[in-house]
Amino acid sequence: MTAEIITVLAIVAIAMVLFLTEKWSIDTVSIMVMVSFMVTGILTFEEGVAGFSNPATITVGAMFVISAAVFRTGSLNTVNIMFLRMRRKSEFVFMLALMVFSGVLSAFINDTAVVALLMPAVLKIAKDTGIAPSKLLMPLSFGALMGGVCTLLGTSTNILVSGIAQSHGVEPFGIFEMSGMGLVFLATGIAYMVLIGQWIIPKRQPSRDISETFDMGDYITEIFVTEKFEDTGKSIKMSRLFTDYNMDPIQIIRKTGEVINAYKYTVIREEDTIRVRCDKDTLTQIRNIQGIELKIDLKLKDEDFRSQGHKLYEMVVPPNSSLINNTVKSIDFRRTYPGLTVLAIRHRNDILHTKLKNTKISAGDVLLVRGDEEMVDQLKGSDHLLVISENATPRMVWKKIAFTLFIVVAVVTVAALKWLPIPIAAILGVVLLILFKSISSEEAYRSIDWKVLFMLAGILSMGTALEKTGAASLLATTLVDQLGSYGPRTIMSAVFLVTFLSTNVMSNNATAALLAPIAISIANTMEVSDRPYLMAVTFAASLSFMTPMGYQTNTMIYTPGNYKFMDYVKVGTPLNILYWIIATICIPMFFPF
Fold it and tell me: Has residue 133 been placed in a domain?
């Protein structure tokens, strides 16, 4: 083992630890890996940054824009309408339809966008029918993941492995090359969820009242201002009641009955009732202040928070949101989103009511927001906050819808018939969508998840370093020496097992970038076709069901579905094991050695 191989393996090991601990974001770690390889001399500058011009990176960026155009033009609103009409059907029928449609859509559109599109309608149906959201959101996410492996365009992971293959002199994947095996996975997964999974998924029914769901009654208090209050006539910003104590004003009810929003320059008047958010310790501290009377043990409902076009909304933070790893204070939430006030944050199973300004926002968090309806309308289709407490879908413009769907079909057809390479077909599609105003250039830039692109560019250097130094060949030889006597199918099965176990605790793309070069080296060592091994990595990296962090869509549904970590383990583990068995038997049938 050479010094270069030791250096590469050490950098990869450190990267895996950082991916697991999430000390830094995955794109940051990926770029750190790329820079480390260049600084140590493992890769030249040109080799290190080659990931930015890799066909996989370019194709993924273009597909983000195409998916956004489909979403923003309302091209798929008919699917939502159909689901809403099915609300009277049985839970069994609806789950089946939900998984089929999410799977079909995810074969051609980014699966995160599919879940974002369907989640509000699914939650509305759950509320109207009394079906627990937990019974529907997991099938939605799992269906999207299963459908994503049916075509090359289904997930960024598919495109990434194809790009790695191409960079190693191997024929890239065709758009429908994965479809046969992908449909086997999709059909098997749907059958499992309908026949077995639905009995394992917990039934957790949240309160129909949003304020009750977030336990707001325990943290919202009304303060009545009497004539003896010394800060009468001062603004909220100048009042010691708010400068000296940890309280956030939400509303002011004037003595006339008028309800207004409380801002820092709002003046406090005699006989005002100020509705504030604070904890019980703060209440103890202020209860003896002269001139105020506390109204404790309030039983507030959603309608109590309505005034001047304002009401309560639940908003989930999608995986590509700019809010992630920021705080309400650092992004100046009220200035960035005028008319919106964050009242609580639900992170996993914890509900945070106080000290929200300094709480870091994570992907999948649900924000309880009191907001202006006009501002919320502007957020429809936003990449930063997804309104899930109502069915908020873009307005349908039929001319744009027809053109957008035509472009999507044209891109797939041109690439499938190999009239143009996939990256060129995708870029051409983006240009036409912008030229004909299906999506503006500004919306196109915002729709690209730049974190994913930087992550892809960074981790592609990992595969290059493994290949260049011979580390991939060394690892492949070691595996073949241990299992080679059992035949290529057994080694392929081991590759699938290692991949799906890794992707449940680490980024699916990072797992694919690490194992794809090793898969190619295994095939070369055994002198067999590389296709079965590459497909094992591709399928296993995307079919991640055992943890909420295994894939972005699993993270998105975690909080809205009121899931616990063990729910994924109980439902996802048998499914992953079933897929491992099917992959071992069927992949060589579709992709012979």
Answer: no
How far is 118 from 113, CA to CA, in rounded Å? 9
Digits of tens for pLDDT over the chain (593 positions)?
788 888 988 888 888 888 777 677 778 888 999 999 999 998 999 888 888 888 888 988 888 888 888 877 776 666 666 666 665 666 778 888 889 988 998 888 878 878 887 888 788 778 777 788 888 899 999 999 999 999 998 888 899 899 888 888 888 898 899 999 999 999 999 999 989 988 998 887 665 555 555 555 556 778 888 888 888 888 888 888 888 887 778 788 888 888 887 877 888 888 888 888 776 677 777 877 888 887 755 555 555 555 555 677 788 888 777 788 788 778 777 777 777 777 777 776 666 666 667 778 887 788 878 777 777 776 765 667 888 766 555 556 677 788 888 988 899 888 888 898 888 999 999 999 999 888 888 888 888 878 888 888 888 888 888 888 888 888 888 878 777 777 889 999 999 998 988 887 777 888 888 888 889 988 888 888 999 999 999 999 988 888 887 778 888 888 888 888 889 999 999 999 999 999 999 999 999 98
CATH number at residue 374: 3.30.70.1450
User: Is the residue at 369 inside a domain?
Assistant: yes
Task: Please compute, for residue 327, the number of CA atoms within 13 A of its CA located in the half-sphere on the CB side.
Answer: 10
Q: d(Cα 352, Cα 335) in Å, to the nearest integer?
A: 22
Report the alpha-carbon distance of residue 296 to residue 203 in Å, rounded. 33
* Number of structural domains found in the chain: 1
What 3 state SS string does 273-328 have? EEEEECCHHHHHHHCCCCCEEEECCCCCCHHHHCECCEEEEEEECCCCCCCCCCEC
> Is 560 within a domain?
no
Does any domain span residue 318? yes
Domain with 341 in it: 307-393
